[in-house]
Design goal:
By secondary structure, this protein is mainly beta. It has three helices and 28 strands.
């Protein structure tokens, strides 16, 4: 045994000697890289002009220390762990708080930091955790003067941001640690009020998909780009294979699918299928004379090129997994007539629904990493919860729901994180502990949940 220890010490000594011979210039280069400041991008003027941007005193995150891990640190108990419930074997903590400006959607950058849109603040914030202790180091505004930014996603060195009426992109330099360019991708996006948030994702085909909600609760839109998912090339041009590329209305050229009242998020499955959620309309009176139970909220909707998805004429009536092949039914309370040649039997039905007024927002699939294997292939959805349910017994929780996937299909659901809603109150009446918005997994294997009511980001890890 002593001989083995001596051999180990000798081996370590050799490694230390080798490392000590490394060039000091390389060490200096690394130190300079970790002290490079991040820039705050100014308002866009001419998108063809690369702006000159001032520096701010924010250190660059070291990619060497913010790396994936299977076993993650767990901070001390806090307000979230005392209030929120998670399944056995998991733990939740507040990762970041004091986020002013309505934190919404998140994405991890090439520096492995968390980037989050501050929709009311008109900015993008970065939330680094260099020492990987499970707590944010600082809340850093890195891009500002945006028009209600919401969806964001990295494509190489470019951060794409969906704003109310446009998509912009911002180039990040790993060498300098700066965002050194700002470009307009497209303003072929319907702006305005109503459902004003826009979400974007890149598909496996390399195209840019953008969802735009309706301008109203129930109406026939004058702009066909609303209540739709749009599809662009990465430079903002229209792909030649879009389904309505030859339509006489040029606004239709970008439309990929329509009749989607408000699909706040969407994703692609491992099989390459595009799934979206859908927030159903309000004030549809049920058999009890209340606007509480109709229509069921659509959690998984299969999106296909050129297809019609029902709103404002039809809705899904079943609850849960659509194993019975139920079709959409006519909304008899709208008094709206379907366009010629269409009926509700042609509206693509949901694959999975949940209780009305659950308000599904961000959604993500589990991933290999920190979570146990039986949790890695399921769908996780942030439910923003109800704001206008009249029957206290029907109030919908603001929570994170787990949708169990079997053989590539959603089959059942169960609560994953809950406890934000105050007893007897709606999630949106101001009394809630918070309201989850987005849910993503990071390169460290942890789940991150944004909260636009409390201004927080939570971190969930497996502790088994």
């Amino acid at each position: 045994m002593i001989g083995k220890i001596i051999k180990l010490v000798m081996l370590v000594s050799i490694v230390v000697l080798i490392l000590s011979g490394c060039s000091s210039a390389a060490i200096v280069e690394e130190q300079e890289a970790t002290s490079t400041p991040i820039v705050s991008i100014p308002p866009a003027m001419d998108p063809s002009v690369t702006p000159v941007v001032p520096l701010i005193d924010t250190p660059l995150v070291s990619t060497a220390t913010d790396s994936p891990a299977t076993f993650l640190s767990l901070p001390a108990e806090d307000e979230a762990s005392a209030r929120l419930s998670v399944p056995n074997g998991f733990a939740i903590r507040i990762f970041a708080q004091g986020l002013q400006g309505k934190p919404r959607f998140m994405s991890f950058g090439p520096d492995n930091s968390r980037y989050i849109s501050m929709t009311n603040g008109g900015s993008i914030m970065r939330l680094p955790d260099v020492n990987q202790d499970g707590l944010v180091d600082s809340n850093e505004v890195v891009i500002s003067s945006l028009n209600q930014p919401h969806g964001l996603e990295w494509q190489g060195d470019w951060l794409y941001v969906a704003e109310n009426d446009r998509v912009e992109r911002f180039r990040y330099s790993m060498e300098t640690g700066l965002f050194d360019a700002r470009e307009l991708v497209t303003d072929n996006i319907p702006g305005g009020v109503g459902h004003y948030t826009r979400t974007l994702h890149f598909g496996p085909d390399g195209k840019l998909y953008v969802s735009a909600g309706s301008s109203c609760n129930v109406c026939v839109e004058s702009d066909p780009r609303r209540a739709a998912i749009l599809r662009f090339n990465p430079d903002g041009s229209i792909p030649a294979d879009n389904p309505y590329i030859d339509n006489e209305d040029s606004r239709m050229h970008a439309v990929w699918a329509w009749g989607l009242r408000n699909s706040v998020d969407f994703l692609w499955t491992p099989a390459g299928d595009l799934w979206a959620n859908l927030n159903g309309r309000d004030n549809l009176i049920d058999s009890d004379g209340l606007p509480d139970s109709l229509p069921p909220e659509v959690i998984v909707l299969p999106i296909r090129s050129g297809q019609f998805y029902g709103w404002p004429y039809c809705y899904n009536l079943f609850l849960g997994s659509n194993l019975g092949g139920f079709l959409q039914v006519t909304d008899t309370q709208t008094n709206l007539r379907l366009p010629n040649g269409l009926d509700c039997n042609q509206a693509v039905p949901a694959l999975f629904t949940d209780l009305a007024h659950s308000a599904p927002l961000g959604m993500t699939l589990g991933q290999v990493g920190n979570f146990p294997s039986n949790f890695q292939s399921d769908l996780y959805v942030a439910y923003h919860g109800s704001w206008n349910v009249e029957n206290p017994d029907s109030i919908r929780d603001c929570k994170v729901e787990r949708i169990v996937i079997e053989n590539g299909m959603p089959v059942r659901n169960e609560v994953f994180v809950n406890g934000w809603r105050a007893p007897g109150s709606n999630c949106g009446d101001g009394s809630a502990f918070g309201r989850p918005v987005d849910v993503i997994f990071g390169p460290d294997g942890a789940m991150y949940i944004s909260d636009d009511a409390a201004g927080r980001v939570y971190r969930v890890i497996s502790i088994n």
